[in-house]
Write a structure and sequence with these properties.
Number of helices of chain B: 18
Shape of chain A: elongated
Order of helices and strands of chain A: HHHHHHHEHEHHEEH
Shape of chain B: globular
Strand content of chain A: 5-15%
Number of strands of chain B: 25
Structural class of chain B: alpha+beta
Distance between the termini of chain A: 35 Å
Oligomer: heterodimer
Number of strands of chain A: 4
Structural class of chain A: alpha+beta
Largest interface: A-B, 64 and 67 residues
């Protein structure tokens, strides 16, 4: 567990946050007068210029950049004073923005990560259902508009060739989804639950069917080399989501919640 | 508190990272799908899709609150479970076969950027106010976007949002990332992800929007950017499309929609300058816009009772939307309707063709959602609403819709509509796109009925005995096709199957439009098949209503009436030689509850009686028309029967 934690960027982040917190706590006062320096690095100035460009569609002039800096300083001063006064507490917008940023942060690392072959192979092993080639069914069917018509046909009293309908008489190597698209959910579920058999009675939204299930091919797992990109995409989105959830759990554990 | 500062600093640094690494995709996924899968001999089943879905990249959808992006939209359409913005889990009972994410090209991604921008960076007072409203709460955010739409309608959008040059860089980033994502989700044979965008032309708030849909993968679509133009000219869009096709060898089409909110401008009889339409304009329009979206969340555009007084089913999806243009900044008057609805546009097309030899309005019909939630839902029992502000919640049905002037439109006016069906030989970009181009497509208001239409001159009842689909393709034309008059009345093979997971069918109708000997436009609705019940010559329609099994308070219905399948071989009894005409099929289901009644049941609402009754509806499908055109004989006088 500990070794995993050491490798986990989220843990790094939490540790870093804790370290900052500890350093500042050791300073005894929550706001050190020595902290009253506002430094604007070259990078931050470049960010201001970039932000200007993104919003306005062109780089700022020198005068405009000065104005940006002045405005930034003003906002920073007021921001820090607002924090000192505790004005951020109880503000729903601030609350939501910060919690969203925390979420993004927890997921961000994984969005840029390049997973190794081993990671992806393991992912594929752990989630066979998502990448397998589903079962395939080959069957033919005869349609009857009513249960009576079906019964008569079975008893030799009615027309065994069934009633005319614009449905395929035979489907070959069809997937579950393909069957569902053509015959509906009810029919597909019954086919999937059936062993190879002839003359099975199956119902659908259209009516009644006599089905010969000729062939049923079990699904197969496709090798990583065939579907690497798909596995990576799935790993990425699932891992980011899991990470967000886990980050929350980790943080959440530190709190005792009392609901009156 | 200081710990928090550290956290924020760290978060800001990381949030600046590129959020998409992503590996490559296979050559098959990247292309248009040609030669990737085995194709059926004939189009063998309809493939289901939505060509009109908005995600958090759209300027309005983000402002309305959606926080789901294109990837969630693709997953959802493909059948996976996702969590909607408002927290509910969402999954389609049946996956879709294809999807066009059609985010607005104007100011693409701009509301998200405005929202994320440091406040002091936003100098423009209007933009700053909108930014503040977006941060304040969801209601204010919705209001800000309503103001934005109104401003767009009045040509008062702040310069910073409007100038395409200023948007280009940000759009480039978004577009490249988006195209990569589409390729990743595009799986020939299983699921097709099309590149596209919405072009939001809206002079004076009159809706002239088009969805633009590409046939190609990122190698070609990556060579261009989505074309903005909220205050442009439609010819500009066609120039853009021509230029794309010439420079890349790719293909692209445009789909007008919500003509019902255009105040008569979508299908004008005159040309764009107010004078007579010229043949070149008509030809260009027909070539670039082979299909229109006839039904969607913001109402149904088939026809209006004012235009079709003898059609007892003409009022579907009209309430609320007939009042005015998109933001309701200008009222609609009856003289505008003919330019706003599909059936009258098809008629105008016949007249224009008679006058100048080109038909600008010879289009096929599809439905799509126009959902702004990233969720392509068109089933009434799982309708996720127009935008995040009206995802399922107790007050959405009766809430006034706070767009524009905030009058006259309520939540219950929204339709859980619709989907596009494409008759294709397989599920690839090329096959489905080509079905759109040849108009072998149809619209439904949500249910997945299977509708076939063939037209020819020698079909008969006996064709149903054999391989009628082969007969249809070999001796006739399918929906979307042209039939050249040969002096005999055309005969149609029509087949409609119910949605296997839905309601039974009430009736199948053929809607005929033609230009009579005096040059006047005429229309008539023929009942051609219905579930067994006697004709009623006294009533307006010879076929009496199918009945009504809807339990209003429980939001249920029974399939104890209606039919699973309806078929007809129908020959036009009013055929006249040389007459220009179109014929399309309308299939009606038995009455079922709309999403409003499902809501009422779920949330225990008591709705006004008229709202309840308006929400017992007959869902429908509209096929693309078949056109009957006079034969042109070289040297002959034009076959116009004046």
């Amino acid at each position: 567990m500990m070794r995993r934690l050491l490798r986990d960027p989220l843990a790094h982040f939490l540790v870093a946050g804790a370290a900052i917190w500890a350093a500042l706590s050791l300073a005894d006062e929550p706001v050190d007068p020595a902290e009253r320096t506002i430094a604007l690095t070259k990078e931050e100035q470049a960010n201001l210029a970039l932000g200007f460009e993104r919003t306005m569609g062109r780089p700022p002039t020198d005068a405009e950049l000065d104005a940006q800096i002045e405005s930034w300083v003003r906002e920073e001063v007021l921001y820090r004073e607002a924090l000192r006064l505790g004005l951020d507490a109880g503000d729903p917008v601030v609350r939501r923005r910060l919690s969203t940023k925390m979420d993004d942060l927890a997921g961000a690392e994984v969005e840029t990560a390049r997973p190794s072959e081993e990671t992806l192979a393991a992912w594929l092993r752990e989630h066979p259902g998502r990448f397998g080639e589903g079962e395939r069914f080959t069957f033919s069917q005869t349609y009857f508009r009513s249960e009576d018509a079906l019964r008569d046909a079975l008893g030799g009293a009615g027309d065994a060739s069934g009633d005319a309908i614009s449905l395929p008489e035979r489907m070959s190597d069809a997937s579950y989804d393909e069957i569902m698209a053509v015959f509906g959910s009810q029919f597909a579920a019954q086919i999937a639950g059936m062993q190879q058999t002839s003359g099975a009675q199956v119902t659908s939204g259209y009516g009644y069917h006599l089905v010969d299930l000729e062939k049923r091919v079990e699904g197969r797992q496709r090798p990583l080399s065939e579907i690497r990109d798909k596995v990576e995409a799935d790993w990425r989105s699932s891992t980011a989501a899991a990470r967000r959830a886990r980050a929350f759990e980790l943080l959440r554990e530190a709190y005792r919640i009392e609901v009156e | 508190m200081d710990y928090r500062i550290g956290v924020i600093a760290g978060a800001l640094v990381l949030a600046g990272c590129d959020l998409f690494g992503g590996g490559g995709v296979s050559e098959e996924q990247r292309g248009d799908g040609t030669d990737t899968i085995e194709l059926a001999e004939f189009p063998d089943r309809p493939y289901w899709g939505d060509t009109h879905l908005h995600t958090d990249v759209s300027v309005d959808a983000f402002g309305f609150g959606v926080r789901l992006g294109p990837e969630d939209a693709l997953k959802f359409a493909r059948g996976e479970e996702v969590t909607a913005t408002t927290g509910m889990s969402a999954q389609l009972d049946r996956p879709l076969d294809f999807l066009v994410i059609a985010d607005h090209s104007d100011a693409m991604g701009a509301t998200r950027r405005l929202y994320d921008a440091p406040r002091m960076m936003v100098r423009d007072p209007t933009l700053r106010r909108w930014r503040d409203m977006m941060h304040e709460n969801p209601d204010q955010s919705t209001r800000a976007v309503a103001e934005l739409i109104t401003a767009a309608a009045n040509d008062e959008i702040p310069e910073a949002l409007r100038d395409p040059e200023r948007q280009a860089k940000a759009t480039r980033e978004l577009w490249d990332r988006h195209l990569g994502l589409l390729d990743r989700y595009n799986e020939p044979g299983t699921f097709t992800a099309f590149a596209g965008f919405e072009w939001t032309l809206m002079p004076g708030g009159n809706n002239l929007h088009r969805v633009v849909m590409f046939r190609d993968g990122s190698a070609k679509t990556g060579q261009v950017l989505p074309y903005p133009g909220i205050d442009g000219e439609v010819t500009g869009l066609w120039d853009y499309m021509d230029s794309y096709e010439q420079s890349t060898g790719g293909k692209v089409l445009a789909i007008p929609h919500n003509s019902n909110l255009s105040n008569g401008m979508m299908f004008e009889f005159s040309g764009p300058d107010g004078g007579p339409m010229d043949a070149d304009y008509a030809r260009r329009r027909a070539r670039h816009e082979p299909v229109v979206e006839v039904t969607q969340i913001k109402g149904d555009s088939e026809t209006h009772p004012f235009l079709s007084p003898n059609d007892e089913y003409a009022s579907f999806g009209v309430a609320g939307w007939e009042l005015g243009n998109l933001p309701l900044t200008a009222k609609s008057t009856p003289d505008m309707f003919a330019g706003s609805y599909i059936r009258s546009a098809l008629l105008r097309g016949l007249t224009l063709e008679q006058q100048m030899g080109e038909n600008p309005y010879a289009f096929g019909l599809i439905g799509s959602t126009d959902s702004h939630t990233s969720l392509a839902t068109a089933d009434d029992d799982q309708f996720f609403g127009k935008h995040t502000g009206n995802e399922p919640r107790a007050d959405r049905a009766m809430a006034a819709q706070n767009l524009g002037t905030r009058q006259g439109r309520f939540g219950w006016h929204y339709l859980a509509s619709g989907y596009a069906a494409a008759w294709a030989r397989g599920n690839t970009r090329a096959e489905i796109f080509d079905a759109f181009m040849r108009r072998e497509v149809y619209a439904t208001t949500g249910p997945r009925m299977v509708v076939r239409l063939f037209a020819g001159f020698d079909f008969g009842e006996s064709d149903w005995e054999g391989d009628w689909v082969r007969a249809g393709y070999s001796r006739g034309v399918p929906m979307g096709g042209d039939l050249v008059d040969d002096g005999r009345a055309p005969t149609f093979l029509v087949s409609a199957l119910k949605d296997p997971d839905g309601a039974n069918l009430d009736r199948v109708q053929i809607v005929k439009g033609w230009v009579d000997a005096n040059g006047a436009e005429q229309e008539k609705v023929f009942d051609v098949a219905w579930s067994a019940r006697p004709m009623d010559a006294a009533s307006n329609s010879p076929v009496p209503p199918v009945g009504d099994t809807v339990n209003r308070s429980e939001a249920t219905y029974e399939n104890s009436i209606g039919a699973a399948q309806l078929r007809a071989t129908w020959t036009d009894p009013e055929y006249r030689r040389g007459q220009r005409a179109f014929y399309y099929v309308r299939v009606l289901e038995i009455p079922t509850p709309s999403w409003v009644l499902y809501d009422a049941k779920r949330f225990g609402l008591t709705l006004p009686k008229e709202v309840v009754e308006a929400n017992v509806i007959q869902q429908r499908a509209y096929s693309s028309p078949v056109w009957l055109r006079p034969r042109r004989i070289p040297g002959d006088a034009p076959p116009i029967m004046q």
